[in-house]
Amino acid sequence: MRSLEQTVKLVPPQARISQRISDWLAIGACMAFPIAVSLFFLLNQSLRLDESQSLWQTSRGFMDILSTVATDVHVPLYHFLLHVWRLFVGDTVPFDRMLSLVLFVSSIPVFYVLGVRAYDRDTAFFATFLFSISPFMNWYANEIRMYTLFTLLVIINQYFFLRLFRERPQSDHAWAGYALSALFGIYSHYFFFLNLGAQIIFYAIYRKLFAQGSLARFAFCASLVIAAFAPWVLFVIHIGQFGFQQPLLGKPSFVDFFNAFGQFIFGFHDDAINTFILSLWPLLVLLGLFSLRRSAGTKPETVFFLIVVACSAGIAFVASILVSPIFVSRYLIFLLPSLYLILANLFSLYPPGMRAIVQTSAICLVLLSLGAEIWSSATPVKENYREAATYLNAHVTPQDSVIVSAPFTIYPIQYYYKGSVPLATIPQWNQYAYGPIPAFNAAELAQQVNSITAGSQNVYVVLSYDQGYEKALKDYFESHYQLLDSENFSNDLSVYAYRLRYNTPLSAIPFTAATKH
Amino acid sequence: MHRFHEPVREDFLKAEAPKWLLVLNAALALTYFLVLAFLFPIGNWLLFSLLIFGEVFHIWQVLTFIFTIWDVKDPVLPLGGEDLGVDVFITVAGEPLAIVEKTVTTALLMRYPDFKVHILNDGLIAAKEQWREIRTMAKRLGVHCITRVTRGGAKAGNINNALSLSKKPLVAILDADHMPHADFLAKTAPYFREQRVGFVQTPQFYKNHADNYITSSSWEQQEIFFGPICRGKNRLNAVTMCGTNMLIRREALLSVGGMCRDSIAEDFVTGLLMHARGYKSVYVPEVLAEGLATEDLSTYSKQQFRWARGALDVIFRWNPLFMGGLSWAQKIQYLSSASFYLSGVIVLIDALLPVIYFYTGLLPVRVSGMFLTAVFLPYFFSTLYTIVRASNFTFTFPSLCFSMGSFTVHLRALYAAMTFSKSDFGITEKMRQNGNFFPLVAVHICYVALVALGLECAFLREGLSASLINNTAWALLNIGVFMPFIYAALPEKKVPQESEATAVRIETYALP
User: Fold this and answer.
1) Which residues lie below 8 Å from residue A469, measured CB to CB, with a gap of 6+?
2) N or C: which end of chain A has fewer CB within 10 A?
3) Whether the Cβ atoms of residue B353 and residue B50 lie closer than 8 Å to each other
4) pLDDT-based confidence at B502, cuts 50/70/90?
């Protein structure tokens, strides 16, 4: 494949201009696609748990944002941006999500430029197109979280890093861009350090190919990063307690490891589809064999992207096994651009006919996956707290109680809940008080339930994000009270209605067993 | 002739794989094998045994490959000293006159102080009509023509006959289509100044490698052998004698009774016998002669059969493991080279395992989760990358497919070797043969049909289970690898058109 520079030299000036215009029109179409997907399908979904926490955290002053984000084991750049964004666009879920969409759409042309820098125009185009239709990216482009900001900053940082690798002489602009993107990046997500770590490994391998004096300048950038991040580290240490508002993560298995990569390419699907995708893994062997062609060797840029993907995923996985579970696909979203460029480069090595077939098939499969992710109610990441709250709004009376478990799921419920009955949690937790969520204690369950439901006619129990005690909770209610109703609103989110008292007139009962069972 | 795949001529001779990669590859290979063999519940014992047998073979091939290419010690051309005289034998048995004449005239142009060209004309014995024209051509060119009249031994017999009618201390052997460069003798003969050097081998480069799909694929198969493998064998004093483009010390050849007449791969066995006698071998990593690759699938298959049969004979009749005079490195090298042709069995096993599952539901191991995947994929890709690096990025998908697709030929050769049946030394045709080559890929096509039918059986039995999907993927992998071989059976392949940019880039390579 001809590089961009070679193309430019061979193509006459007027053709060059029209080629540039058509290139950017194509990029524009890539940018328009996720906007259309968001507007028509994804922006208006129910608020999800993580999003509700983002809204809750950014509904306060800057210092409060800092402390809540610190305890939430995240870094605050996105939260500051969201806080300011909400001041300007208002406070509805779709508009709050648009910040993530804007960041994702902005990353598309930057990703294209990265692809051209690393490889060539054709490879970059294909990778960019895949990136723009990616189910994974489109999902997080519609989530009030930091992931598209994180991805954008990683792409920018990698672009400048590769510029510094190849440019002779290295420009001050490139160094400034690299340093600035690193400084902002470390405050977008902790895993940005994995991106920097991959660059260190790459530099160690290819140090002789960098310009003279690079080591000193990289060291200077590193010292800037450390100096900029140190205050945050000290602040977090000063705060003391972390992670009490997050669901517990379990130790990942190899299924989770490969699932993450399946999600990067095909998005989120239920277990049956995930199993189907993962079972096809021998085809990876065939895809690798197809790329065996006489060539000039592996480009250093490919080695760089491979290091980013393999080392980052490997470190996160091993750390999850040995230290603490941190292997979550959304945290590794920054691998996606590298992965797509590796795939695009791999396909570019195929003979022309095979390349066309494989690229077309890949696009069709990804689009199909995106469609399934959007339309399937079984998509596991869909959380329909809106409908659950709507149900509560319709059925809960002032004589009733509402219990939410796991406790941190109170955030999305209370966003939509309009009832007069306060929401309680089991384990009992005051979300406004400093400190972790209390652990579940089976011995105290009866006492907690009684204290919440004292004097109530019925209790509505909202269960989601099982932290290991959901069954115990449900069994308690099933064995002590009469089940009046149960509704499932999305994967792992259900509401159960139980009757607490029998001395109420029939007319006061909102529904009878005959209508439901 | 417009070349699309013209390689830089010496590309395949240049690379070395870094040692860290070789160590990593070995470690991953052993890890994968141990995990597979010991960590999962066994399904069907017979299938498990077959699977393990196949994986043992793969591990053997990986480890011996790593052992071979671990280090490279290219020979240094000795300077000074006496130039020994060379009898240049050009073996002819029915090849087209024009090709033979070209080879002879090229040989006459070699720059070396003392050599004599002989045409070893086996046309009379082989009942080839142009043997008289060969004799006439030899007379016209002033070249000695030895027309054999006594049958026996095929090419080996032909060479041995010529040995008795010539006398220079060194013998160069060239096939009828292998044209030597002018410096062929100048760059090979000096190695014989060391007394114990028995033979010097150079690469078999195919100058028609870009003519069609089969010539390019068969050349690409050769690159890894004549590249990193032969350079590694040089270090281990275990160079394979390849039958052409080589120089032999007459005394050494006669000490083992001349070229071996009892094997269809007379060169391979003769080299083995010379090593057992304590003679040294040298591999010169430079293209010094250029021949012709097979141009059709039928000729290619016949050539593969001859090589496979000859190599497998070594295992069954001249097993180096029990042969005295060889170092352990040499034993391993000969066993490794010979056992390569057992791969036909392994390809068959690997191809049949998913098919057996489709029809019976039987599995060799019960794998749950993705742990096996997590150890297999690193092992597989590290092995692939090792081969690619070792071959200086000349190893291609078609060459892999031709190796694996030839499994039917290798199986026939194995059967013939095990039953000690007689196989004819078929001369490799130098001109493209026309005809219907689909019988050569009938087994491969049947495999596709078996998979298609089997899928239906399995689906009816258990629906879209994870095992069904996984085995389907394995079957598709096998089919994907067989497809280029099936494609080669189609009439007349041209090398596919590359993009204009690639053609421009290739055209700028300087040809010697």
Assistant:
1) A405, A440, A442
2) C
3) yes
4) very low
* Interface contact flag, A255 B370, Cβ < 8 Å: yes
- Residues B132-141 as b or e (16 or more Cβ within 10 Å = b): eebbebbeee
Q: What angle do CA B10, B335, B279 make, to 5 degrees?
A: 70
Q: What are phi and psi of A479, to 5 degrees?
A: -85, -15
Task: Give the integer Cα–Cα distance in Å for B487 and A265.
Answer: 32
**Block residue for tokens 């519940």:** B41
Nearest residue to B410 via CA among B350, B348, B318: B348
Q: In the predicted model, what is the mean pLDDT of residues B462-472?
A: 94
Judged by average pLDDT, the poorest of A82-86, A203-207, B226-230, B498-502 is: B498-502
Q: What is the DSSP letter of B88?
A: E
Q: What is the mean pLDDT of residues A106-110?
A: 98
End-to-end CA distance of chain A: 66
SS (H, E, C) A25-63: HHHHHHHHHHHHHHHHHHCCCCCCHHHHHHHHHCCCCHH
What is the strand order of the sheet A401-405 is part of? A423-425, A401-405, A458-463, A493-499, A482-490
Residue pair B124/B149 in contact by the 8 Å Cβ criterion: yes
pLDDT of B7 over the 60 cut: no
Token pair listed for B439? 């019988």
ipTM: 0.86
Round to whole Å and give the CA distance between B101 and B121. Answer: 12
Residues B58-111 have pLDDT tens digits of: 999 999 999 999 998 888 888 878 889 999 999 999 889 999 999 999 999 999
Amino acid at B190: P
Residue with tokens 């070893």: B120
C-alpha distances (whole Å) from B100 to each of B112, B133, B156, B283, B285 are 21, 11, 19, 26, 25
* Fold annotation for B86-204+242-293: Spore Coat Polysaccharide Biosynthesis Protein SpsA; Chain A (3.90.550)
- Count each helix (H run) and each strand (E run) in chain B, helices first: 18, 10
Where are the extended beta strands (E) located within A215-307? none
Preceding peptide of A169 cis, ω within 30°: yes
Alpha-carbon distance of B97 to B7, in angstroms, equals 29
pLDDT in tens, A34-65: 999 999 999 999 999 999 989 989 998 888 89
Q: Which pair of tokens denotes residue B245?
A: 């483009």
Strand-pair category, B280-283 with B197-201: parallel
Contact A258 B464 (CB under 8 A): no
The residue in chain B having the minimum alpha-carbon distance to the alpha carbon of residue A279 is B470
Tell me the whole-structure pTM to 2 decimals: 0.88
Asked if A351 has any chain B CB less than 8 Å from its own CB, the reply is yes
Q: To the nearest whole angstrom, how far is the Cα of A271 from the nearest Cα of chain B?
A: 11
User: How many Cβ atoms are within 10 Å of B91's Cβ, its own excluded?
Assistant: 25
| Residue B124 · residue B147 · CB < 8 Å | yes
Tell me the pLDDT tens digit for each residue of B384-414: 999 999 998 888 999 899 999 999 999 999 9
Q: Which residues of A touch B472 (CB under 8 A)?
A: 280
Question: Using the beta-carbon criterion (under 8 Å), do B501 and A1 form an inter-chain contact?
Answer: yes
Residue B216, both tokens: 């390019």
The Cα angle at residue A418 between residues A414 and A421, in degrees rounded to 5:
85
Close Cβ partners of A171 (under 8 Å, ≥ 6 residues apart): A163
With CB atoms and an 8 Å threshold, state whether B380 touches A254: no
Q: How far is CA A419 from the centre of its chain?
A: 31
Contact yes or no for B470 and A351 at CB 8 A: no
B419 to A240, A331, B267, B313, B328: CA distances (angstroms): 79, 62, 22, 10, 28
Continuous H helices in B129-247: 131-141, 154-163, 213-224, 230-235
